Amino acid sequence: HNLSTYKGTASLLPGCENRDTLKASVLLQTYFVLNKSFYQLAQVHFSSTMAKRVAVILAGCGVYDGTEIHEASAILVHLSRAGAKVQMFAPNAEMMHVVNHCEGKPVTDKRNVMQESARIARGEVTDLAKLDVKDHDALIIPGGFGAAKNLSDWATKGMEYSVKPQVEQVIKSFHRAGKPMGMCCISPVLAAKTIPGCELTVGHDFECEKWPYANVAKSMVELGCKHVNKNVEEVHVDKKNKLVTTSAFMCNAPLHEIFDGLGIMVTDVLKMA
What InterPro entries does the entry give (predicted)? Predict the structure, then answer.
């Protein structure tokens, strides 16, 4: 800089009659202004380039035959708050069956998993066949019976179940790539089959009014997994396999506690992404 451009400025600043003092002051202020601008630009660049890209797999719409809506919504809220970039996927396949949610009974309708999932995704859902692990930093699969009916056949075959090939391929791809996954409610059964010996939680293994599905925890152990008892507002992190699980609606708990537990799951998944 040409310091001569600052001549005459001293008369405008009380106490700065000394030209050398004025020059040093102006230079220092200019330095801080330039560095502040650079820092602000760097912040914008950092925040825009470091947003985590998260794939969320849906399995329909509704607790009894699809994705549990409250779980999906809570997960999406927490991801949004964390600044993650979310893309939702679902199998473009026929649902196992359709359940009348007023009566809890199957009906004769036939519906498509992807079309039903679009209700939750507000239309923005992609065919699961197009999911490429390279395009995402993490994977999250909400619960609901759809995970046990449309993403696997756990609901009908129990311990003899299998995971749908598309879903199995996606989970194994994320696992091989060392990318974190989050699963909740009944969806950890998908990890139990595709990641042998993994650690997970579906809540508690002692059945009571609060934990009506405790038998699932025992089944996970029989499958060779390590089940860790956790309360609804807690998660278990399998650091080796980068798998984060929480019980959600496997617990008979207030909605806000389930919401909070899912928030911890999302946070821990993003930490590893």
Answer: Class_I_gatase-like, DJ-1/PfpI
